[in-house]
Amino acid sequence: MKIVCRCQDVTEEEVVAAIRQGATTIDEIKRLVRAGMGPCQGRTCRRLVSQIISRELKKPMAEIYPPTFRPPNRPVPFALVMAEYERQAAEDRKKAEKSARPDKAAKPAKEGKHP
Ligand code: FES
């Protein structure tokens, strides 16, 4: 018994069984046996699953369709998310202030300066 996905305790036999049920992509394997759904999001097992699909379906690795990724692909500290939110909010405020200010070119010229 070889463990392929150590996050989800998925064995090579389970992956091969999923392929024999008709799975041909990494995403299909993921849906059937949960390989790639652990905390590492498949960073460790994705390549092993591709190799097994390649071997079982007798396809070159280049023809194995890559899995879909959903952000964030790795844990992101919430402070970083909030810092980005605040930066974006400050930028939006500056834009709003700039668009609310009257345009300098549109100001009427002071009296007495015209010839
Ligand atoms: S080893 Fe498969 S999801 Fe982490």
UniProtKB/TrEMBL annotation:
Residue segments, region Disordered: 89-115
Annotated Pfam families: Fer2_BFD
Entry-linked InterPro entries: BFD-like_2Fe2S-bd_dom, BFD-like_2Fe2S-bd_dom_sf, G3P_Oxidase/Oxidoreductase
Residues in BFD-like [2Fe-2S]-binding domain copies: 3-54
Higher taxonomy: Bacteria, Candidatus Ozemobacteria, Candidatus Ozemobacterales, Candidatus Ozemobacteraceae, Candidatus Ozemobacter
Domain of life of the source: Bacteria
Organism: Candidatus Ozemobacter sibiricus
Protein name as it appears in the record: BFD-like [2Fe-2S]-binding domain-containing protein
